[in-house]
Amino acid sequence: MQPDNETHAADGTPPRPAATTLGELRASGHEYETIKEEIRRNLLARMRAGEERFPGIVGFDQTVLPHVERALLAGHDTILLGERGQGKTRLIRTLSVLLDDWTPAVAGCEINDHPYQPVCARCQRLAAEQGDDLPVTWRHRSERYGEKLATPDTSVGDLIGDIDPVKVAEGRTLGDPETIHFGLVPRTNRGIFCLNELPDLAERIQVSLLNVLEERDIGVRGYALRLPLDLILVASANPEDYTNRGRIITPLKDRFGAEIRTHYPLTLDEELALTQQEALVAWDGADPGADLPEHLVEVIARFTRLVRSSPAVDSRSGVSARFAIAAAESVAASAVRRAALTGEAQPVARICDLPPIVGSLRGKVEFEVSEEGRETEVLDHLLRRAIADTFRSRLGSADLSGLLATFEEGGSVETGDLVPAATLLNRIGEVPGLARIMDRLGMDGGESFGEAAAALEFALEGLYLMRRLSKDVIDGSAVYRT
After folding, report:
1. Of the candidates 201, 232, 261, which is a domain's last residue?
2. Do 218 and 91 have their domain in common?
């Protein structure tokens, strides 16, 4: 708990407290709390203030997050179960925002002992020798989160610890507890430790976590060592009926206080929000190099949901949110490629940039055995359905007579992923009501050739799918005609 008189930095994060010794820490009024008490206090404070508790998490507000909050308030270690790409790890990583900005630790301690209650042999010795002069350091909450991807070759030494031969070579005896090299779990003492894909951990290694979860201590080889740990352990796993790589042993499952099921976005709006948010995260907030109009993001979101619910797709494997993110990135990249090859000033993604993503996304989907050989056909069909559904939603009631008039006398319009926006607009000619079409698609109706071309090409494809135009595809180019 931080002293009340700390001033806040300009970014809202309090500066590092000034205490550098145990005596100064006591004089500052700092009080000791366990990690579970600390998280419970901060979570309750955010709830009472109406503040966001899990930033960046979309679609779990009424389903998953209430269970997570109950587990944290109860002080439970938790396991999140769900198919791939449901945001389990992303959710776990947000838990660090519930920690204090700064917390004290004995300077130089490998397991971040609290100065008031040191538990390792080194810190207990120093505390006895130095008293109030025991040096104190401060750790930011970002340093109090640890994570390990469970793999079959993970050892007990990796997680818990082992004898350090270097320390033995320096002259310490094998019976000296200070010869231990601590593993990842004790090094996250007084923090949050995440173990991803827990079933992949060999069963004999899972046994080493039993005491961590129940007795809150560890043992290393033959040492008579009781090291009480103060941490929260959160694990993630795929449902056991899907993964054949391993299982969680029953005694370990029994020691987790809460088992919480995650899910994919339940509504289209949540799918849209997630796709837009995560695509921006994938680009690290940078400009992807091309504009991705709202209606194309909606097509991608609908496409993802259709693939996820298709009977041709293995429902046990799921369709990850990374599917939609990769689609958005690929569509934007296609527009950038077109601009580089044709000299467009500002690339804007269009409908013609969607079909190429089918080939690159095919490997992200596991199909039923009966659909072998039809994977591309299935995805093409679902993409057309997604475009048609988006067209009905956005332009179903729009007056497109001005665009249809272009084809009244047997005219045709050719487009493709290497046709610049200006060329496409010249081929279509002036279209009455274009501003209203763009407005329905969430565009401002400005002077952007790219946005106008994207709106008109989407309208052409929608009219084709509604059987009001025909389309011939020749060598990657599409020709629309009556």
Report:
1. 261
2. yes
DSSP 389-424: HHHHHHHTTS--HHHHGGGTTS-EEEEETTS-HHHH
Domain range spanning residue 409?
268-481
Residue whose tokens read 């519930």: 98
Say if 113 falls within a structural domain: no
Task: Quote the mean pLDDT of the chain.
Answer: 88
Reference 349, options 292, 283, 421; nearest CA is: 292
Q: Is residue 118 part of a domain?
A: no
Same domain for 257 and 158: yes
Cα angle 160, 161, 163; round to 5: 160
Query: Could you tell me if 159 and 208 are in contact, meaning their C-beta atoms sit under 8 angstroms apart?
Result: yes
Tokens 């709106």, residue located? 455
Query: How far is the C-alpha of 226 from the C-alpha of 217, rounded, in Å?
Result: 6
Considering only CA atoms, which of 188, 113, 185, 189 is closest in space to residue 155?
185
pLDDT at position 76 is 96
Q: Which tokens sit at 282? A: 């994938």
Q: Is the dihedral of CA 28, 32, 37, 38 positive or negative?
A: positive
**How many independent structural domains does the chain possess?**
2
User: Model confidence over 359-414: pLDDT tens digits?
Assistant: 889 989 999 988 888 999 999 999 999 999 999 999 998 889 989 988 887 789 99
Please check whether residues 279 and 311 belong to one and the same domain.
yes
Q: What are phi and psi of 86, to 5 degrees?
A: -100, 5
The domain that holds 39 is classified in CATH as 3.40.50.300
The model's confidence at residue 8, banded by pLDDT at 50, 70 and 90, is: very low
Checking if the pLDDT of 241 tops 60, the result is no
| Residue 145 phi, psi (nearest 5) | -120, 130
> For residue 282, is it within any domain?
yes
The DSSP symbol for 131 reads G
List the structure tokens of 106. 């004995």
Q: How many CA atoms lie within 13 A of 247 on its CB side?
A: 5
